[in-house]
Design brief:
The complex is a heterotrimer.
Chain A: E1 2-13, E2 20-31, E3 35-39, H1 46-54, E4 61-66, E5 69-70, E6 78-81, H2 85-88, H3 95-104, H4 110-123, H5 139-152, E7 157-161, H6 169-185, E8 189-193, H7 197-203, E9 206-210, E10 215-222, H8 233-236, H9 238-259
Parallel strand pairs in A: 2-10, 3-8, 3-9, 6-7, 7-8
Antiparallel strand pairs in A: 1-2, 1-4, 4-5, 9-10
Chain B: H1 2-6, H2 8-31, H3 41-88, H4 90-105, H5 111-119, H6 123-147, H7 151-159, H8 164-198, H9 207-216, H10 220-248, H11 250-255, H12 261-265, H13 269-284
Helix pairs in contact in B: 3-4, 3-6, 3-8, 3-10, 5-6, 6-8, 8-10, 9-10
Chain C: H1 2-28, H2 39-50, H3 53-86, H4 88-101, H5 110-117, H6 121-146, H7 149-157, H8 162-200, H9 205-214, H10 218-246
Helix pairs in contact in C: 2-10, 3-4, 3-6, 3-8, 3-9, 5-6, 6-8, 7-8, 8-9, 8-10, 9-10
The chains are: A alpha/beta, B mainly alpha, C mainly alpha.
């Protein structure tokens, strides 16, 4: 059952002959509990697309639907994790207050909020750090805080915009596993945009490949790799390499067209 | 020279050398002075004690500070509120620009004649003078601060459906506060200037009035004493502001990587209080506390290695 | 198109509304017309004044006094600031003195200066220098600390002596700070000069404001106030223009991420 539907999303900037079509026609349906990764060549408007899905940006045409409702602003059951974690965490609040901030407008009592925050921080491995400030932490820990914040919000859908792009490879691997762990333990649908093909194949149930600008969906590939995934064993499988090559070729094709 | 810069005593000596020397110079050159414009420092100090400890405190110091505080407070509130309005509504800001630019260009002391002519010379008018003088720089900096709030923060607030009111109060204002603080600091200096000159025209009490009155009656020792007091007031007010800013804006310096090592390692007062509470609670119970307050950063976390 | 219309139209609209409000309010009695003369009256008074010798003399006096004060300030603050900033010992030695003198509102010195100089322009100049010294001094201190040691070492390696290094590496690097400092000092100086003129009666625009105020000629008073404001704007624009020309190579680097400069 599709819990999130992107229906012929198009986004262009400017009017008339100078209009730039960032996204031409993208239609994707995310099933409940699915971990969906979106990849594409650089500049294909992945972030723009995600912002439309989140309701932060209005598409020029087409609709984003959650169930029956059209998304015009971020729905209550959707949480976002940005790529730029250091700028999305409030530097004047400690971790715990950062995590509880979204909960304040929900009428959740103080004690309950703190409990939820502590639980969320613990689930990302940051228990005991609640009193620290974001700028006292490394990039990986900051991103984990952002994830904790999204989790404490108890969303049904998690949108992530290249969340692990700005950390080093080792931290990235840990964060990927963290995401899988958290996802498997909660009823979450995840939509993750990334430029890292390995990451997309490693994490996803399904990978959606976007074309170059003006963007449309090039293909949608189901990832048949077994779960639970493991950084070493899964990546050793021939199916992993095959899938990866397939997607890589697909994107390369798009980039080649872009150049010529 | 190394001794002075490298050793602790050397540094202290070096820092005190010039002020001490200048004071000594003042003392010595004024000692046998017969010029009425340059009374002996000893006389000045004597007068300082006589006038300001504490006779003239309630009659002059307190009214001055009261007027200053009121005027400055009004300027801060109005400046920040105005900054919010103009910063969040760029169209209104643009429309108001000719007026704000014009009013900003007027040298603040020339607002004094305007107030005298329209409001007179009473206490309220003086407060108005101080407020009017300080408000522009606070307003302009507040507008700047609000407009330069990181859009990622605004996106974050929107993505979590924070209400407009909450977004302004909990995201926009704190994010703008460093720039607002800069404006408030300059506004403080302007406010003090306005306070003094407002008391030099049509006034019957206050620091500015005292100094001018002393000069007019050729009581120069008293005049110098008054100037010293004004200097001290300026110093203390500034110091108070800097100290308050240091505490409140600690996060800003931390985020910018400007905290020196000692400051960064020191936990905030709130954290210290929390630690004391958990330590006390742990001491009264026999079970070890869940969070070991002081050394939690040394506890191995679930994911090890590189998180420094 | 829409953007341009907004950029020009909105300010004009705002200006028109403001002028209209102040034009009408005194005429219908909301505001007392004696103390709030309508802008048209002020403008008329200004036009009348511009032709008079008093006006021109006052304008010239203020501008001249300001220029002298700025020159003295620059000559004092820049070398001193660069010296203090370049040496740890000097920084330490001067720290307490600077921290004590800086927050002292220079207007507190007015009675003392009146005793010494009466209504001579010297009063205003000293007043202005005392207040305007600090922004420039501090900027010069930051400037010298900010000189790239790599650039300096490169110059030494290429055989440039101390004076040549000063001219070719240190001074150009310091220029952005110094021009910023001069811009800040310039407005502080003007403010203090006008203050001295108004409070004490030194010749200049401020004195004319006082005369008009005492004589009840409020339209003239406002006209002089406006003139002082315009002078301030002109000075600011002129300094900004000079700054841009001097720093055509540097404009991108001038404002760093740090919030240090108040929008004065």
């Amino acid at each position: 059952m599709a819990v999130l539907e992107l229906d012929s999303i198009a986004k262009s900037y400017g009017d008339g002959p100078d209009a730039v079509a960032a996204i031409h026609d993208v239609s994707v349906a995310a099933q409940e509990g699915e971990l969906l990764c979106i990849v594409g060549p650089s500049g294909c408007g992945k972030t723009t697309l995600l912002r439309c899905v989140a309701g932060l940006l209005a598409p020029t045409s087409g609709q984003v639907r959650m169930g029956d409702e059209v998304v015009t602003r971020t729905p209550r059951s959707m949480a976002l994790v940005f790529q730029d974690y250091s700028r999305s965490l409030l530097p004047w609040l400690d971790l715990r207050h950062n995590v509880t901030l979204p909960l304040q407008s929900r009428g959740v009592g103080r004690k309950e909020r703190d409990r939820m925050a502590d639980a969320a921080l613990e689930s990302v491995g940051l228990d005991g750090h609640g009193h620290k400030y974001p700028w006292q932490l490394s990039g990986g820990m900051q991103q984990r805080t952002a994830i904790a914040r999204a989790l404490a919000y108890e969303p049904e859908i998690l949108l992530m915009d290249e969340p692990f792009a700005s950390v080093d490879a080792q931290t990235r691997a840990e964060l990927e596993d963290l995401l899988l762990d958290v996802w498997s333990r909660r009823a979450l649908t995840v939509l993750l945009v990334t430029h890292d093909i390995d990451e997309a194949v490693y994490l996803a149930d399904r990978v959606v490949v976007l074309s170059k600008s003006p963007t449309r969906v090039k293909e949608s590939l189901t990832v048949e790799l077994p779960r639970p995934r493991d950084q070493i064993r899964t990546k050793e499988l021939p199916e992993f390499a095959h899938m990866r090559a397939q997607i890589f070729a697909s994107i390369k094709e798009e980039s080649a067209h872009a150049v010529s | 020279m190394r001794f002075f810069t490298r050793t602790r005593t050397g540094r202290v000596v070096l820092q005190l050398a010039l002020p001490v020397f200048l004071l000594w110079l003042w003392w010595v050159t004024s000692e046998n002075s017969t010029s009425y414009a340059y009374p002996p420092l000893s006389d000045v100090l004597e007068q300082l004690r006589e006038d300001w400890m504490f006779d003239q405190v309630p009659t002059d110091l307190v009214p001055s500070l009261a007027r200053f505080s009121a005027g400055y407070a009004i300027a801060v509130v109005a400046g920040i509120a105005g900054g919010l309005v103009l910063g969040l509504m760029p169209r209104v800001q643009r429309a108001a620009q000719p007026v704000t630019e014009f009013l900003r260009a007027i040298p603040p002391p020339l607002l004094l004649p305007f107030v005298i002519v329209t409001l007179g010379i009473g206490n309220g008018a003086k407060v108005a003078v101080i407020a009017l003088g300080s408000v522009w720089v606070i307003l302009l900096n507040a507008v700047d601060g609000v407009r330069s709030v990181d859009p990622v923060l605004l996106d974050t607030a929107a993505s979590f459906q924070l209400s407009r009111r909450r977004t302004i109060w909990r995201v926009v204002l704190p994010a703008a506060s460093p720039q607002i603080a800069v404006g408030m600091r300059t506004g403080l200096a302007v406010g003090l200037i306005m306070m003094i000159i407002s008391e030099m025209q049509g006034s019957t009490n206050g620091l500015g009035y005292q100094v001018l009155a002393a000069q007019r009656s050729f009581d120069t020792a008293s005049m110098f004493a008054g100037i010293i007091v004004i200097g001290l007031v300026g110093l203390l007010v500034n110091l108070g502001f800097v100290l308050a800013e240091k505490r409140i804006m600690r996060w800003y310096r931390g985020a910018r990587g400007l905290l020196d090592e000692n400051e960064a390692a020191r936990p905030t007062a709130r954290r210290r209080a929390a630690e004391r509470r958990t330590a006390n609670a742990a001491a009264t119970r026999d079970t070890p506390s869940r969070v070991a307050p002081v050394h939690s950063h040394l506890r191995p976390t679930r994911i090890r290695h590189q998180e420094a | 198109m829409k953007g341009l219309a907004e950029r020009i139209g909105l300010p004009l609209l705002g200006l028109a509304v403001a002028l209209a409000v102040f034009e009408i309010a005194p005429r219908i009695g909301i505001l007392p017309s004696s103390s709030f003369p309508p802008p048209s009256e002020i403008f008329a008074a200004l036009v009348d004044l511009v032709g008079t010798t008093e006006f021109r003399a006052a304008l010239w006096a203020t501008t001249w006094t300001w220029a002298v004060a700025m020159t003295i300030t620059t000559v004092l603050a820049v070398p001193l600031g660069m010296f203090i900033g370049s040496s740890t010992a000097a920084t330490l030695a001067s720290r307490i003195t600077i921290d004590f003198l800086r927050p002292v509102p220079s207007v507190a010195l007015i009675p003392l200066l009146v005793l010494m100089y009466g209504t001579q322009p010297r009063l205003a100049i000293i007043l202005a220098v005392f207040g305007a010294l600090w922004p420039l001094l501090f900027q010069a201190m930051y400037a010298i600390r900010d000189v790239d040691p790599v650039a300096r070492d490169t110059a030494t390696a290429f055989g440039l002596g101390p004076f040549a290094r000063l001219r070719r590496v240190v001074l150009p690097s310091c220029t952005p700070f110094i021009t910023t400092g001069m811009r800040l000092s310039a407005s502080v100086a003007l403010i203090l000069i006008v203050t001295g003129e108004y409070i004490v009666g030194v010749d200049g625009l401020g004195k004319e404001v006082f005369i008009a105020q005492s004589g009840g000629a409020y339209a003239d008073m406002y006209a002089y106030i406006v003139t002082a404001g315009i002078l301030g704007v002109l000075i600011n624009v002129a300094m900004g223009g000079a700054e841009r020309r001097l720093l055509f190579w540097h404009a991108s680097q001038r404002t760093r991420g740090l919030v240090t400069e108040a929008a004065l």
